Amino acid sequence: MPGMSAAQDRPTYGPQLEGFQYPFTTERFSFSSQGQTLDMAFMDIAAENPNGRTVVLLHGKNFCGATWEGTVARLTSAGYRVIVPDQVGFCMSSKPAAYQFSFHQLAENTKALLEQRGIERATILGHSMGGMLATRFALMYPERTEQLVLVNPIGLEDWKAKGVPYQSIDAAYETEKKTSFDSIKQYQQTFYYSGQWKPDYDRWVEMSAGMYRGEGGERVAWSQALTSDMLFTQPVVHEFGSLKVPTLLMIGLTDKTAPGGNRAPKEIAATLGDYTQLGKQAAQAIPGAALVEFEDLGHAPQIQDPDRFHAALLDGLKRL
Length: 320
Fold this sequence. Notes:
about 325 residues, alpha/beta, Rossmann fold, about 40% helix
């Protein structure tokens, strides 16, 4: 059958993305955390004509450092040094079976990496889940945060407070074990890209799905289940007013992402993920925040329309 043949042709990767080639040289930062030795994979890309500034790119839950490929190229050509970590529990980094995942912990890990690289201050740019992490980093370490940039961050609303029921880690694990190329693509096409799809997106879906297909697939699924808990139980939206750093919000208005919406009652689910309002509300809550909206783009504007997104980003970095 054609569908079966296509499925068999999909790539398979190890639990730390063994077999997948990142676009720039990947290094590893080893450190001790919660009684175990872990490592964070990261890319440290030098600027072509350095302007003395550094940008740290934080990936989303369904993304990896590699998906920042186009953004890295644009930033380095504009003079920025760029650091791109894979957080513990994701992509090329360690996936401990037992770890207290929190945005505080991941922010501390990221700070340790930056210290090891000799970086005292940087622009912290987070996409999707990375936006929640970037916000937590800026709240914890304002003296190290030159600017905060949030690209379609999740966490602009408190799903639990709005009535989304909690999902246990065991239940999340059972769902994660069913993940496939088709399920990832269907989800992203529906919620990220407003029903549209470009062949270029397949590469990033194959990257994620390949980890689930490999021999370490259950380990990957377990790690994804563990990390899903902090999205739901550790909101940052209530602390936006405490941010003390220049902040830029970049929001694709067709985004429909709302973690937990699939298990919420229909009347509640219908109110979630309204980025036409969420970005504006966040901009009002964050002191002095600037807001850039892309009327026809969704959850990943940096992938969907790279030229327009990066022009706006570079402009925003100069103005903040």
